[in-house]
Every structure is written in structure tokens, then in C-alpha cells.
Amino acid sequence: MKNNKKLLIFFENIKIVLSSFIRNVGDECRQIFDIFKENAIVVFDNAKLIISELKSKKYVRLFQVMKKASVNALEISGLIYCFAIAFSASTGTLVVKIARLLLFFSFLLNIVRKNKIELYINKYVKWCLAFSIFAFASLLWTINSGNTISAFLSLLYIIICNLIVISITIKNNKYIYYIMKTVIFGSIIHGLKIFLFHGFNVYFNQRGGTIVENASVFSIVASFAFIFCIILLLKKEIKYKYFHYLITTLNIIFALLTASKKVLIFIPIFLIAYFLFSAKNRGSILIRIALFLDIVVIGYYLVMHIDFLYQLIGNRIDAALFALFGTKSDASTTFRIVMIKNGFEWFTHKPILGYGLDCFRYLLGNNIVTWAGTDGVYSHNNYIELLVNLGVIGLCIYYYLYANIIYNYFKQKDKNKNHIIAISLILSIALTEIGQVTYSLAFMQLVLLIIYNLMYCDKNEYKYIQIDVSSYINAIKRRLIGEEKYARSLGVKIGKGCEIYSGIIWGSEPYLIKIGNNVRITQGCKFVTHDGGLWVLRRKYKKPNIDKFGKITIGNNVHIGWNSIIMPGVKIGNNVVIGCGSIVTKDIPDNCVYAGVPAKKIEDIETYYNKIKDHVIETKNMSSTEKKKIIEKHLKEENDEK
Questions:
Q1: Taking a C-beta distance cutoff of 8 angstroms, is the pair 222, 248 a contact?
Q2: What is the pLDDT of residue 323?
Q3: 283 contacts: CB under 8 Å, gap ≥ 6
Q4: Which of 262, 561, 279, 576 is nearest to 434 (CA)?
Q5: Position 22 confidence tier, pLDDT thresholds 50, 70, 90
Q6: In 10 A of CB 74, how many CB atoms?
Q7: Cα–Cα separations (whole angstroms), residue 27 to 94, 127, 290, 332, 641
Q8: pLDDT value for 63
Q9: Beta bridge partners of 603
């Protein structure tokens, strides 16, 4: 009974997740549409002004280049999404919502354009699916379904977007460097927005308070942007060096101005790891270690003895060191230690599966008074967060990707720069995750995607799956625009006043079909425009490329009955009736009734009319109720006469 109840609750939760996902997407579309609707006139007027300004300055070449350029909409929307994630550092902003919807719609349009779904399955995709499935399964044992559903929806958005982006990178290895560049510029613009509007000391003391976004999140983005600048320099993927030096400097300044302890840990760890792993022998490793120790000692001395640097960074280093050695620390660090202790205690009660996705907040809010009240806050430690929420199994699934990248690095015989960068990044992230929760951050998931590509880009280990969806797309298209417009869109030439039923197959060369005026083609009819028998002749006579086609021409005022087949090269005249299930293999003259397999002449049209004229009734265009009464009355009268 208990298991049945759990299953019922699980299926109810599935319904809630699906309805929430659809409702959220609908709400986002509506919200974005309203904004565009309100600002459409202003945007249009500004666009006209810009265009006229460009034209007045004779930038005609720009327009010519834009016209000629062949642009991949999916790749561009992927870069816009990556830029939005770096710029906003959050999945809830309007910029990210617009970028996300643009990516979804570009992917769908790509499917419609190609009439197929292209799936690329590699280790990263399998990891994403495994973690998301297990996170979703936690609805079975969660202690707070509201938190779990909300967190899973956010995770689902991130994973879907990343799976689309990874499919682009598989097809284009250089695309990963474009992503890095968009992250760099997203961070620069974000930093300029913060520090120019709020001042360079906005993160001092109160670390910005509520007037700007979370300092820790922005410090992560700026730190990675700085590292990506270095990677592009190492890989020689830049054109303008001095400009690149400028944006590299800006990113490290922005990262330091956030006064985040993670910056002081993450960047040095990456640099140390990179230089150690890239060393060719033990002697150079020792020299590099000594050099870094000197830099650390000098840097520490400067930070602790210069007032400005101490206010910005030094006091936070002191707090971290005090906490590490068990002496008095600041309130933030002390509270994080309390959360870790409580989290570990809760984990010991449910070590295998945990309490359900995003349930650490619920447990904390019900046990400790925080600034968020009973809603609680996340643990600020990725390991504790995963252990409490998803148990040991969830932690192992999530860190499988990390372990796989590290294992692959040491397994590699010929290590290149990409491998060294990937291992340095993954180790840096693994260490800094002691002080931050990253599994639910869209930006950090994008970084993991980049690291995976750097490690495996030269292997191209993936399975390609192609799903033909042309029939489904055509069915939707037919419903939306109607059968006649759909046939015209395929290239069928149709006259006026025609009636086209559903389920018609127009053949592989629909542009060879010409239909006159007032023609009715009923359900299930098929038009064949090529000779399929050549399949045999190609092999027998060793002519593999031969084909034979024929036009199909239908005159005016023609009725073609249900499930009839019209063969290639056939010409049907005017005023013709073709019976149901007929196969028309030869031309049909005017004013005839044809039927059969193959179709043969039954009678001429005048004979057909004289035969039925005494039995016809006028019910066309009547309602079904009126029609029923007249038909029943007519048939009763005919039976009485008999």
C-alpha cells in the first residue's frame, strides 16, 4: 500500500513538472512578446535611423556583405545564449529567458528545415541525462516536492540548452573558442555595468547588499573570463593582441573588485596546475613551485600591508585563515561552517539517496533561523549540497565527469595544451567547490561543457542518431495551412475552386503535377511521378543512376475517388469521374467515368447523369441535422415505391 501511494505521488509530481514546464515556457513567451509589442515601434524607428545613418555614410559594402553572408541561425543563437549566461550569471533574468527561447526555437526551426532530428550521443550527453534522470527520480523520496520540482525545472532548462550547444560543438570544433570569446565579452559588459553605475567600491564591506547581484556569482564569471583570455593567448586564437591584453586586465580587476575569496583560490590554483602539468621535467617543476611560493609570499605581504588591498581582500583572507585554524572568524564564514556540520549530520541519516533535490534549504530553514526564514538557503558547498539532496549515488553520478576527465588525462600518452588546460580547470573547480554550489548554476555547467570539449575534441567519440520527422512536420504544416496551400508549397500547380482532402501523397516530384479548376481529390489518393521498376533495371543492366519520370495533368471539373492511384505520364481530361480505389495507368479522355484496377471506361458522363438523375436530392451546404431528415425521408419514399 505504501509503495502504491508513493507511485501515485510520483506520477502526480510528473504531471506537476510537465504542466509547470509548459506553463513557464508559455509565460516566458507571453512576457517577451508583451515587451516586444510595447517597444516594437521605438525599436523600428531606431532601426530606421541607424540604417539611414549608415547609408548616409556610404556603408553600402556592409549591406552587401550582410546579404551575401550565409549565417547559421542555430550557431548564432547558441553564442547569444552563452553571452546571456555570462552577462547575467543567472537563469532567471529576462536576457537569459529571451536567449534561451531563441535557442529552443532555432533548434526547432533547424529540425523543420532538415525534416530530421540529429542527435549526438557522447559521454557528456550520457552524463547530463544520467544526472537529470536521477534528480527527477528524487521526486519519489523527496521530503519537499515543491523545492524539488522548482529546482528540477531550472536544471532541465540548463541541460536542454547545453545539449543543444554540445551538438553544435561536435560539428564544429572551433566553436568552443567562440563560446569562450562570448563569455569574455559578457563578463566585460557585465562588469562595466556594475562598476560604472555603482562605483568601484560597491562590493566593499556589505559586498553590494541588495543593490547589485551576488558578488560570488559575478566573481566566478570574471575569473573564468580571465582564464579564457589566457587560454586564447596560449592557443593563439586571437587577432588583436593589445586589445586582448586590455580585456584580460579588465577581467582580473573586476574579479578582484568583488572581494571574493574564491578568486584568490581559483585563479592561483589554475595557474599553478597549468604550469606544473606543462613542465617537461622534475627540475622545471621545482623551479616553478619555488617561483610561485615567492609570488604568494610577496602578494600576501602586499595585501596585508596596503590599506586599500586589505579592505578589499585582506580582511577576507584573515577570516578564512581564522576559520581554518579554529579561531574567531567573520559571521559569513562561521555560518558556512555551521551549515557544513549540519549538512554532514543530515547526510548520515539518509546516505544513499538523500532527501530529494534542493531539500538542504528546506532542512536548514526548519532547523536554523536564517535571513531567508523557513525557505532556508543552499549550503555554499557543492559536496554537502549533493550529499544531502541526492546522497552518495547522486554525488558519484555528478562527479563521474570530473573523474573521467582526470582519468583520461593521465591515460593519455600524447598530452597537448587542451588536455593540460582541461585538467587544470577541473582540479581548480573541484577544490573551489568546497565554498560554492555549482551544479545548479547555468554558467558553471557551460564551463564543464567547455572543459569536456577541450579534453575530447580531438577524439570525436560520439554516436550519431538521425530521426526522420518529415511526416510529423508535414502533418502539422498541413493542419496549420490547409491541404491546398500545403500542396502548393510542395510545387503542385492547382487551379481555382478545387477541393483537396487530407492524407494525399503527392509523390517525390510534386512539381510535375498540374491540376485544373474545380477538381476534387478525395482522401488517400496517391500521385506517382516516377517509375519505381527501374530499381531492377539499374542492377541488371549496370546503369545505377538511371531514372524515368512523367508529368501528371488533370483537367477541369474532375472528381477522383478515395484511395485512387494516378501513375506517371497520365493525362486526365475535363468532366471526368474516377471511382474509388482505381489505378489510372493510361490517359482518360473528356466526359467519361472510369474505375477499376487498372482503370477502364465504365460509361460516358451523360449516361452516368441520366442513370442517377431521378435519384438525386439537393442536400449540399445543409446542416447535418437537416440533411439527415431529408435523406431518411427520401430513402423511405424510394423503399415504399419498391
A1: no
A2: 47
A3: none
A4: 262
A5: low
A6: 21
A7: 12, 30, 57, 37, 65
A8: 42
A9: 593
Contact (Cβ atoms closer than 8 angstroms) between residue 336 and residue 381: yes
Cα(288)–Cα(278) distance, integer angstroms: 11
Lowest-pLDDT range, 20-29, 32-41, 215-224, 402-411?
32-41
Q: At 245, list the grid cell.
A: 591584453
Give the Å distances, CA to CA, from 158 to 103, 104, 371: 12, 12, 28
Q: Is the peptide bond before 598 cis (omega within 30 degrees of 0)?
A: yes
Cβ–Cβ under 8 Å, residues 450 and 104: no
Give me the mean pLDDT over the 402-415 stretch.
86
Residue 39: Cβ within 10 Å count: 11
Cβ neighbours for 123, distance < 8 A, ≥ 6 positions apart: 401, 404, 452, 456, 461
**548-582 residue pLDDT tens:** 999 999 999 999 999 999 999 999 999 999 999 99
Pairing of strands 571-572, 558-560: unpaired
Residue 464's SS3 state is strand
Nearest to 270 by CA among 432, 407, 380, 413: 432
CA distances from 621 to 82, 90, 618, 627, 629 (A): 57, 59, 9, 9, 14
Q: Which three cell numbers stand for residue 110?
A: 533547424
% the chain with pLDDT above 90: 22
C-alpha cell at 475: 502533418
Q: Are strands 592-595 and 600-604 parallel, antiparallel or unpaired?
A: antiparallel
**How high is the mean pLDDT of the chain?**
79
Q: What is the pTM of this model?
A: 0.69
Please name the helix (run of DSSP H) or strand (run of DSSP E) that holds residue 604, with its range, or none. strand 600-604
134 close to 390: Cβ distance less than 8 angstroms? yes
d(CA 258, CA 99): 26
What is the Cα–Cα distance from 91 to 162, expressed in whole angstroms?
13
Q: Measuring CA to CA, how many Å separate 279 from each of 165, 175, 235, 285, 624?
A: 33, 28, 17, 6, 86
The residues near 274 (Cβ < 8 Å, ≥ 6 apart) are 420, 421, 424
Contact (Cβ atoms closer than 8 angstroms) between residue 339 and residue 309: no
Strand, coil or helix: what is 638? helix
